[in-house]
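General statements about sequence and structure are easier to judge against a single worked case. For one protein, we set the task of working out the structure tokens from the amino acid sequence alone. The sequence in question and its structure tokens are set out directly beneath this paragraph.
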Amino acid sequence: MIIERRDGTAIGIEAKSAASVGPSDFRGLTRVRDALGQRFKAGVVLYTGANTVSFGDRLAAIPLEGLWTSRHGHIDPTVTP
């Protein structure tokens, strides 16, 4: 899913039913990031694993469970549990 704001900035979200992710899981988001340049703010792959993992420039894998739980009452995708 690509969500674009009126100002042209965008984020990309993919969901995987896997407990692990790798660089190949970011192919689509990488293409969108490269096509949009600085308009692309972030790309995330939601997955069933336990840790938030960076996959380079503005890309990260985030545990699906993180949508419902957090350590401090808010979700911070830059923090690795």
In short: The first helix runs from residue 27 to 36.
